[in-house]
Amino acid sequence: MEKTKLIRFKEGFLYALLFMGFNGLKELIFDYVETSQLFREFSHAPREVIGVVAITILGLWIVLGLLLGFGLIVSDALKR
Q1: What integer best gives the mean pLDDT of the chain?
Q2: CA 13 from centre of chain
Q3: Taking a C-beta distance cutoff of 8 angstroms, is the pair 75, 8 a contact?
Q4: Cα dist from 29 to 19, 51, 53, 77, whole Å
Q5: If you write DSSP's letter for every residue of 25-62 in order, what string do you get?
Q6: Of 68, 74, 71, nearest in space to 13 by CA
Q7: What is the mean pLDDT of residues 27-34?
Q8: Which one-letter DSSP state was computed for residue 1?
Q9: Nearest CA-CA partner of 15 in 50, 66, 54, 55
């Protein structure tokens, strides 16, 4: 069964989310000092800063998902 472009984009977004999640978890575990300092700064940060960080993470996820989706579509096209 041939995978449609929409399915490939969904897979790309899922792979991007998994990559960001595992990378974030790795940073939490292995770089504890820097991560605890970041959380300490967030606790004193105004709401605007937290909103900007959330929008940045969402934007990064969208860009990575689109790049991976396009990459999957191109790899399917090259296999034919």
Answers
A1: 86
A2: 8
A3: no
A4: 15, 24, 20, 39
A5: HHHHHH-HHHHHHHHHHHHHS-HHHHHHHHHHHHHHHH
A6: 68
A7: 81
A8: -
A9: 66
pTM of the model: 0.76
Query: What are the structure tokens assigned to 80, written together?
Result: 């034919």
The fraction of the chain above a pLDDT of 70, given in percent, is 99
- Per the CB < 8 A criterion, the answer to whether 15 and 71 are in contact is no
Pairwise CA distance, residues 7 & 4, whole Å: 5
Residue 3 confidence (pLDDT) above 90: no
What is the C-alpha end-to-end distance of the chain, expressed in Å?
13
24-32's contacts with Cβ under 8 Å and 24+ in sequence apart are: none
Q: For residue 73, what is the enclosing H or E element?
A: helix 47-79
